[in-house]
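Notes to self after the call with IL:
- keep both proteins in one doc
- input above output, always
- annotate only the second one for now

Protein 1:
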Amino acid sequence: MKRIAMALMIGAVTMASVLAHGSNQESRPEQSVPSERSVIGAWEGMLEDRLPITLTFKMEGGKLLGAVSFDAVREDGTVEGRSPELALIDLKFDGKAATFKIEKMASEGELGFKLIGANEAELKLKGTQFENGYAIVKMFRGK
């Protein structure tokens, strides 16, 4: 019984020492999740190989903000000109992907933006005008 008590006491003292002073093992660098900073910048892509889209992400006051602009298209398919920048609302970023809605178009649903490289991403647009109800646009970070 004394041996068990002594072993428990030595174990407790050893554990307390490790917790108080850290272990002597080399610490491995932690696998970090990319921060919001990994998406900051202007991202450009082409919808249906003819309509440019620009997404811009920035940090302001410690918060990730974004905006989108694109070519406006008339019902007959002709390009009307560049839209004003519209804010991204309900913007959430988990380190690899962002979801958001577009100001003045929120009723059209949530969009997705997924990093697939340091300067490459995919933008998922929803809409009945697209085959399968959505389109994937390859986006590249501007220089």
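Protein 2 (the one to annotate):
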Amino acid sequence: MIQLSPKLKILIVLSCFIIAALIAVVVGVTVKQKLDVVKVQTISFTSANQKMLVGDRTEINVSIDPSNAKDKRIRFRSSDSLVVVIESVGQSSVVVRAVGLGEADIIVESVKNKKITDKLHIEVSDNVALEVEAPAGVTSIVGTENSVPLVLVPTSANAQKIDVLSFNADMIEYAYISVVAGVPNLIYKAKSAGSGQIVVSVKAQLESSDVVVLTKLIEVSATDPKLTKFGFVAASSRLETFEERDNKFMLSDGKIYIRFSAQNENETSDYAVLPSVLKLVYNSDILSVSIENDMLVVEAVDANYTTTALNVMFNNETLSFTFVNVAIPEYFASADCRIDGATTSGGKYTLENGKNYKLVVSDTVAKLIENGFAHIELVGIYEAFELVDNYILIAKAETGQNIQVGFELKIDYWDRSVLPLQCNLDIEVVEAGYDER
């Protein structure tokens, strides 16, 4: 066993006291530092419970006490994200947006201590201060653009921004807002038949200076078109207005472009979009039929045909068109007409006053008249003669008169530049029962 000297024992004892004292100092400082850390005591919203309208957005601030707390991290959450959603978070604030009807709490809590928390109650309701009126049960024709006027109520509301939020893309091709003369209109085009919804967002300022946002759901539907009679016909390369003539066309002058209208219970479209299920029935040995820019393009394949038909069928409806192989003559001269039943000598016809005679024309001209493409008029001698139904000529002049009578062929098919189509005949009028023998 080692024997320590008295001096060494004293030195060891003093060292132990010094070490103990140092430990005591260190522990004391650490305890003091822990006692001096500032912790979050309370978190509270600075505003009271709120009422919001669907579509509204607002920023809410919170207060953290004490303000010099070391760890002031906080988090937010919504008790019902179908009513109110959190859009963005700041150091001591949150931006929320009302997305649906109902009630929800916005809850804030300390990240360090979840027991330190607060909540703010939000009630979301319909916008009673602003309404958007639109026609009920809007029905359009598939393939045609439709316009729906939107009326703000009260009318004093100043629309600041109107947008289309969404629509049924499987039924609706496009939808947008167009403002005409200060009135917002919902413009949309249906690409298939059925029912759909278009959601519109309206931001407006009221007379009270309050700015409100409203989401409006508009119900729309579309039906397949009922094709109606054509509106325009193109001859050769010119597009010209055409008056309907029993659905008859001349094909000898080139291609015919037939444009359709469409209608349903509520509207008529001036320009129908031809459906893909359109059925065309015709003789392909005679006609060539195609679709170009929603018009039927018809052309003769056989130049020797007389009359042929084209039937257009869609939705149990049939439109029939007749094509006639006739041509407009370049001339209508004395060789193309004569008076049947009258005596003639030296190229002059003798007609008895008051008696009916028949004007005979060439086959080409007769075919034009019979199909409603042309008619004949007397030129400048209305008191001396009368022409009935294109062919019946009655002399009404005084006997003994020698008159040159003009018969003008008027083309009714379409406006076109042609040479004068006039037949002139020399006529002598005699008394009834006259016998030159």
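Annotation: The mean pLDDT is 80. The first strand starts at residue 42 and ends at 45.
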